[in-house]
Amino acid sequence: MRRRARRVGGGVRILVADGLDAGALATLRAAGHEVVERRGLAGAALAEALAGCAALVVRGATRVTAEVLRAAPGLRIVVRAGTGLDNVDLDAARALGIAVRNTPAANAVSVAELVIGALVTFERHLAAAAADLRAGRWEKSRYAAGRELAGRTLGLVGFGRIGREVARRARAFDMTVEASDPGLDRWPEDFAWVAPRALDDLLAAADVVSVHVPLTADTRHLLDAARLARMKPDAVLVQAARGGVVDEAALEAALRGGALRGAILDVFETEPVPPGHPLLALPNVLAFPHLGASTVEAQRRAGQEAAALVLEALADGRR
Question: Which intervals hold domain D-isomer specific 2-hydroxyacid dehydrogenase catalytic (predicted)?
Fold first, then answer.
């Protein structure tokens, strides 16, 4: 029997363990709840902070383990303000009767814009050219061999919210778009212009492969050495989903050996990336510190959607 969370006046206590939009915090407080902000917690410290809390809001940094959940008997809901749920022990939450929700639509546009922007940056050598110019070097001729996106084939591994937003933007660049997503029961009617393909066929045909699937037991190292070997040697891989979907050791070998022309990485198997990570030393890699959702708009949407999910769960609990 799970104990009730501590009540504060007419509300309850909510722990926000990662950064959240100020408007979302105000929404929760305006509903009469006590909002406790504590960042950087893990393990026993997180469990201790959850004492008396009815709701927990996290982003990607906080790991919500089975031990943490078992130590919070009054907890009703965990909300991940963002897309992935790989930092929450879903089996433990289910067994304990704790609801788990996320905000998968909140950052779709921001991630899609990063993917297309990074692809243009990579193909036109914009980051290197800007660095040269800032250092006083006018290297126009060095970067004369950029490439256009128009007329090339984009293969999307995963065709959920983010994949579809990427497809819309790629279409505006006159790219041909194909997608692989065996989890879809029906192909979306408004995306009839996107060709469904089996994963291995898509990898072999695409000039650019962009990954947009969650990290699960089935998708861990989905793109391993064998799958990467199916790609064109002139192809570019974009990884803006979850670290672990791509086998980084296999990717490094493919890039070093000329089996792939390049890679754009916004996520890694270990974050923060440890110093000396071998992929960061490669000249044909453009990498970012997991910036996909890092826009004012995405943060605002994620926060407000998270607050709404918390309030809905707490209201249901009072009925």
Answer: 14-316
